[in-house]
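Table S7 (text form). Paired inputs.
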Amino acid sequence: MLRFVNKLMLRLGVAFVGLVILATVVTWNLVRSEAVAAAGQSPAESAGAWRLVRTPNPRGGPDAVSIMHTADTSRSDLDLAGLMVRCSQGGSELAIVTLNAFPLRAHPHVTFGNPGQEKQFEATIGAPGTAVVLPGDPKTVLGEAWSAESDVPIRVTEGSNTISGVVPIGGIQSAFTLLKANCPAP
């Protein structure tokens, strides 16, 4: 019984940390949107439930630009935060965002789709360890779900650790168009 309570406390602790992070991001976005609006610019854009996020480069280079969607918390492990498509040199890349960090040298196995229609990939880990980066073009990785704009079941396995859940991707096509229009020039 003590093990169960300890696991529950740990899990609630992770959920609490995740909520604090999300609250901080939302607050930062609200403050930034107000500052941008005061400067006469348009606030951050969204495409349906997808959110365009622009993060300034602290070294003065181009901003990091991405679109993000949170996981369906009623059908997902607490460790699965959502999906992100971000601008990269030469195009864009798809990443699964988790709350717990993986070792940077890990190569987790990722499965997208329902049984019988699954696609499997070997991913890499992006700094700070919470981005599971998938190889290839996001449209190809997501396959039929991209055009159907349905939910995407996801499973990430690294050793004995498995994170699984579902991310709704409705509106991804228009969000991707918005992303490409906002990616910095190479």
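Next pair, protein 2 of 2.
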Amino acid sequence: MGLGRRHRIELATDRSPSVLAAVQLAEVMALPVPELFRGENESAQTVILNLQYKGQPRTALALAPSTQRRNSFDLVFDLGTQMAFLRPERILRFVFGTPAAIELGLRAALALGGGPTGPYGANPEMNQLLTYLRRSVAPPTVTAIAAAGRALTEARGENVDVTKWLGATHLSAARAALVLTGDLAAAARVIMSEPMPLTPISVQRRLLDLVAFSVSDDYFTCRRHLGLQVA
């Protein structure tokens, strides 16, 4: 990423709009405040980093110059969309990186409740990951994952569409950001200005999804819960 110590942002002293917005969004979204880095590549976009610090995983955001220049609702939508992926149920999107790796991790988690099944049963890489999980994850957590895996298999069978799940995570992240901003124009400006979208879903479909969501009961319920509704 070309980032060094000089790019790391001191959260306690930096009062720039993008940093203040990230801190406030973390509080609203019930997230630990991620480490922030100030990117300098004009062609890049804000991305989540999966870091290692003293042997422990740590998440961070590398703020693109375009994000640093944003203000008002454009800034909130930009950061809110990214930070939605820091939620525990979404972070796997970036921990594993690729759809194939996510599929492998999912199959290994499902196999914790029993032996590997289906086309992945003889996959040596998956069996290696399964052995690692059983050795390194605490038994109560393994039991919980196995129970969730059995419930998912009972509900969906072997046909779990990871690609469709990935698409849904991007749509729901944009919805979360829209709830926080309430500004469709800001959403459109941010989405249409992305240099390299992180999702295969087209810009048109993403915008149409937000338009439909903006007039739904769920949208108004979320805004009301956060105290953001107009009296």
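The two ends are 45 Å apart (CA to CA).
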